Amino acid sequence: MSAYKVALVTGATGGIGSAIAKKLVEQGLKVVVTGRNADKLNSLVEELNRDNVVYYDTFDVNDYEAMKNFVEQLKMKNIEIDILVNNAGLALGLASFQEYDVSDMITMLDTNVKSLMLLSHLLVKGMVERNNGIIINIGSTAGQFAYPNGSVYCASKAAVKTLSDGMRVDLMATDVKVTTIMPGLVETDFSLVRFKGDNDRAKTVYQGIDALQGIDVAEAVWYVVNQPKRVQVSEIALLANQQGNGFTNFKK
Ligand code: 8X3
User: Fold this and answer.
1) From 193, 213, 218, 240, which residue has the greatest number of CB atoms within 10 Å?
2) Under 8 Å between Cβ of 53 and 45
3) What is the pTM of this model?
4) Which residue minimizes the CA distance to atom 6 of ligand 1?
C-alpha cells in the first residue's frame, strides 16, 4: 500500500501535466489539479472522473497571494498533499541574450523558478510534519547545457535542478524525497507557447524526430513514486531516441 494518497499537479492542462495526472489516477491516487485555463481544466477533471479529483483551481502560479489562498483552501478542506509535481513552466521566445525580450525573461524566471520555489515552500512544511512526501520538479535537459538562443530558459531549468538538490540536502533527515525529472524534446504545446501561437514554426521543432510524449514523462513520475521508502530518485534525464543530448539531435 502506497504511503502516498494525494498528488498535486500544477500546469495540469498541458500535455505533460495531464499525462501525469492521468497516470497517477490510473494507479489509484487522488489528485489536485491546477492550470490557468478554466475550460481545459474542467475538461481534464471530467476526463479524470470527478471522484478522483479532490480539488482543482485555476490560480495563477505567479500570483503569490492567490497561491497562498489556494494552499489555505487545501487546509480548510483537510487535503494533505503527499506528492507535489511542480510541472507548470514555459519557454517564451528563442533569441540571443542581447536581444531577448525583457518581459519574456522575467515571466520564464517567475513561472519556472519563483513559483516552483514558493509552492514547494508552502507545502513542504506539512510534508515534514507528517514525515511523508515527494516533491517532483519538472526540469529539462535544457538545464544541463545551455543551447543557442535559450539562455534564460536553460538557466531557469538549471535553477530548478539546483534548487531541488538543495531541498534534498535540507530534507535529508526526513522521509520527504525530492526528484528532478529532466525531459528533452517532448511533443506538446511547449513550442506553440514559445513561438506565441506560430503553429508552423512550432511544428518544425518536432519534424523528423520521434519526440517524447507526455506519457513518457508520466511513466518516469510513476517510477519515482513507486519506489520503496528507502529509495530516493534524485534525478532522471529522458531523451528522445534521436537526441544525443539536450541540444543535439538527429533529424530524418
Ligand atoms: C524542453 C526541452 O530542448 O525543447 O524543456 O528546450 S527543449
Assistant:
1) 218
2) yes
3) 0.97
4) 142
> What residue owns the CA closest to ligand 1's atom 4?
185
Contacts (Cβ under 8 Å, ≥6 apart) of 93: 100, 101, 104, 194, 196
β-bridge mates for residue 212, sequence order: 186
Nearest Cα neighbor of 171 from 94, 84, 90, 247 is 84
Any catalytic annotation for residue 153?
Answer: yes
Digit-coded pLDDT (tens) for 2-40: 689 999 999 999 999 999 999 999 999 999 999 999 999
**Which ranges of 147-210 does DSSP label H, i.e. alpha helix?**
151-170, 190-194, 199-206
Any idea what DSSP says for residue 111?
I
φ/ψ of residue 7, rounded to 5? -120, 135
Cβ–Cβ < 8 Å for 17, 10: yes
Q: H or E element: which one contains 31? A: strand 30-34
Which residue matches cell numbers 534564460?
Answer: 152
C-alpha cell at 64: 503569490
CA distance 21 to 62: 21
Distance 205 CA to ligand 1 centre (A): 10
Q: Rounded mean pLDDT of 59-76?
A: 96
Q: Which atom of ligand 1 is nearest to the CA of 154?
A: 6
pLDDT digits (tens, 9 = 90+) for 190-223: 999 999 999 999 999 999 999 999 999 999 999 9
Catalytic residue among 4, 56, 153, 206: 153
Average pLDDT value for residue range 223-233: 98
